[in-house]
Specification:
By secondary structure, the protein is α+β, with helices and mostly antiparallel strands. Helices cover 21% and strands 31% of the residues. The protein has five helices and ten strands. It has helices at residues 29-41, 74-82, 139-147, 197-209, 217-224, and strands at residues 4-12, 48-49, 58-68, 89-97, 108-118, 131-133, 151-154, 169-180, 183-190, 239-246. Strands 1, 2, 3, 4, 5, 6, 7, 8, 9 and 10 form a ten-stranded mixed beta sheet that branches. A hairpin with a 2-residue loop joins strand 8 and strand 9. The longest helix has 13 residues, at 29-41. The radius of gyration is 19 Å and the shape is globular. The protein starts with a strand and ends with a strand. The mean pLDDT is 95.
Length: 248
Amino acid sequence: MEKQRVRLTVAYDGTNYHGWQLQDNGITIEEELNRCLSGLLGETIRVIGASRTDSGVHALGNVAVFDTESPMPAGKISYALNQRLPEDIRIQKSEAVSPDWHPRHCESRKTYEYRIYRAEFPMPVKRLYSYFTYNALDVGRMREAAAYLEGEHDFKSFCQTGSQAESTVRTIYTLWVEEQGQDLVIRVCGSGFLYNMVRIIAGTLMEVGQGKREPESMQDILKARDRASAGPTAPAHGLTLIRYEFFS
């Protein structure tokens, strides 16, 4: 039987997982998808993920593809697969794509949100999905700083040391900071992101908000091309991959 290529839109709570990519030291999203798909379809399945999110990072719309010889209609796989997956992973959509479609080989935009909860004391129900701070944050200063990062730049200063990326040039289409009650949301949309890039941006913007850096210092950080010049890497649990948009 001729193979079909199926694209999955995957949502997950990353709290209990060691990220997306297969690891020797803990369970991952990719491992669970492979296990449950293989059991469902009766063949060895290996998914290809669009974004290899880190340990503890969440997603509303990560994307994966796989090939199968199963006659099960692509649109029905999501329903059957969700019956097998752990409750903290759910397929939002399954659909057939062309045999040569690859999530990392086509033009796309990716949107992340980093969520910060500001209060005198932590809120237990928010602890897994937002970073808590009791420090006052000047949102105006953070917005001013964020504007310097929009556009095409070399983001080497915002890339974790040890990254294997061939190029550290990326394009940020939009980067804004919005207040939602006691939550402060940093939303960034770009062509792609370096290892820990969004979390380093969030950590640096929070330093600006606390008055530890000036907004215009973003220009110097970009020019330095040195990880040590930027702020700390914000904790993983505040980060969620919101969506992927593909243009080819």
